[in-house]
Amino acid sequence: MIIIKSEREIELMAKAGKIVASVFKNLKDELKPGVTTAYLSKLAEKIIRDQGAYPTFKGYGGFPGAICISINDTLIHGIPSDDIILKEGDIVSLDVGATYQGYCADACRTYPCGKVSKQASDLMLVTEQSFWYGLKFAKIGNHLGDISHAIQEYNEKHGYSLPREYTGHGIGSHLHEDPSIPNYGRAGHGPILEEGMCLAIEPMVAQGKPYTRVLPDEWTVKMRDGKLSSHYENTIALTKDGIKVLTTYEGEEINNV
Ligand code: MG
Prior knowledge:
Order of helices and strands: HHEEEEEHHEEEEEEEEE
Radius of gyration: 17 Å
Shape: globular
Number of helices: 4
Strand content: 15-25%
CATH class: Alpha Beta
Bound molecules: magnesium ion
CATH superfamily: Creatinase/methionine aminopeptidase superfamily
Largest sheet: 5 strands, antiparallel
Number of strands: 14
CATH architecture: Alpha-Beta Complex
CATH topology: Creatine Amidinohydrolase
């Protein structure tokens, strides 16, 4: 069942969203060779807690970190660790959730560490662009499949593939609500988009084949072929005044299409 949010609920989610975005703003320049992912996670947690929120992922399903940090061929759910040290050329995704007064926001950015290959920067760019392209189809009265299809089409046009096991999701007082939002699908299919829906749309994109495996830690999701992967996500709200993207910060560089 898709839960429709009131204006007040969307306001609280927007506050959570600004807190998530502030983590990106502050961590972006901390991604340097030699830094551990545990350090980044602790910093993110402090930023979130200092603003009266808590890190949604911490303890969620038993997840041990405050945020997920996934490097290169790790697609999602990387556990922050003192043993994982960033190096020049890595691409690093920061997946961040914040809960503020009972309402959640969830977003992800993939950033370069130092100078990265052209292949890596192209993959990050197209992943982000596919989000903004998909967003053009997030309109009241459209079908959810219109968004999914657009994300799939945009990435496949650039020669990338889309793992099918993991999807975007509805979001509100719970991190994961209906509907699930695959990064592939058929236009004109799926639920009709309505005012008050809040969605976390999150292209997860593979440079190679779309097949994944989960490490024995039961969280870390890697690409089976060891090729690069990238992830970009925002929480959005469908309102009578149009689409609101809740998890960007003022002045953030956006690669729209
Ligand atoms: Mg999400």
